[in-house]
Amino acid sequence: MRKSALPALIKGRRTVLRKHNPKTAAEIFAAIDKDRKRLGRFLPWVALTKAPEDTEAFIAASLEKWAARDSFHYALFAAEGGFAGGLGLFNIQWPHDCGEIGYWLSRECEGRGLMSDAVAALESAAFKKGFHRLEIRCDAANGKSAALAARRGYRLDGRLAEDRRIGRRYGDTLIFGKVKRAKPSGA
Ligand SMILES: CC(C)(COP(=O)(O)OP(=O)(O)OC[C@H]1O[C@@H](n2cnc3c(N)ncnc32)[C@H](O)[C@@H]1OP(=O)(O)O)[C@@H](O)C(=O)NCCC(=O)NCCS
Questions:
Q1: What is the pLDDT of residues 51-71, one digit of tens each?
Q2: What is the pLDDT of residue 186?
Q3: Contact by Cβ (8 Å): 105, 14
């Protein structure tokens, strides 16, 4: 597939995905900062996000990567308004039409189906663009992330033994995959 960008704005049924904007940095940092323990359990970048400038640097880097078609990271909002979290498509292998989806939600937004909705919208945009396979990778102890992958119809393709170090422990990674299927004729 030829390198090209995903839409800067994607609307789900209950969520809106917006390409990152430096103006949202303070809000994103505040959401991370007040929920470090929960988010940091499975997201190594949380410990590296120590000050608002770190989120500003993340957004600047994400915009550069967007321009280079290396990855597409979005801020997530509930459709009725209000920052909810972040998600993105990265580890893109353009020659193979593959990419990986990652995500996080603020605590208040968890348990409402918002990330499933956002992932559905991101998937749909990616498949429309020409992606053939999407992956979700998560720590084997991350039940909520694995449940989301299953809820969205991803198949468990494999498990990597102790390939990730989080703090003092090594964790297994689950690899979930979903491939685009042509709609049956007449559908
Ligand atoms: C992983 C994470 C995004 C999952 O969030 P989530 O809210 O559980 O995910 P979903 O959007 O799929 O919502 C599903 C939950 O909403 C409930 N729900 C309510 N309305 C729903 C609807 N219309 N559709 C689907 N689910 C709905 C489901 O019952 C489920 O709740 P449960 O976990 O109590 O069974 C979130 O736990 C998180 O941010 N964790 C910390 C960061 C992290 O681990 N990121 C992933 C790294 S791989």
A1: 999 999 999 999 999 999 999
A2: 55
A3: no
The structural domain count of the chain equals 1
Count of helix runs (H) and strand runs (E) in the chain: 6, 8
In eight-state DSSP terms, residue 112 is: S
Task: Determine, yes or no, domain membership for 184.
Answer: no
Q: Which atom of ligand 1 is nearest to the CA of 106?
A: 39
Residue 41 has pLDDT above 70, yes or no: yes
**Residue 23, in any domain of the structure:** yes
- Residues in Cβ contact with 110 at an 8 Å cutoff, skipping those fewer than 6 apart: 144
Separation between Cα atoms, residue 130 and residue 69, nearest integer Å? 14
Question: What DSSP character marks residue 182?
Answer: P
**Domain range enclosing 23:** 9-179
**Ligand 1 pocket, residues with Cβ under 6 angstroms:** 39, 42-43, 102-105, 110-116, 138, 142, 144-145, 148, 151
**Assessment of whether the complete model's pTM goes beyond 0.90:** yes
**Closest atom of ligand 1 to CA, residue 110:** 7
CA of 148 to the centre of ligand 1 (A): 6
Q: What is the CATH number of the domain that holds 32?
A: 3.40.630.30
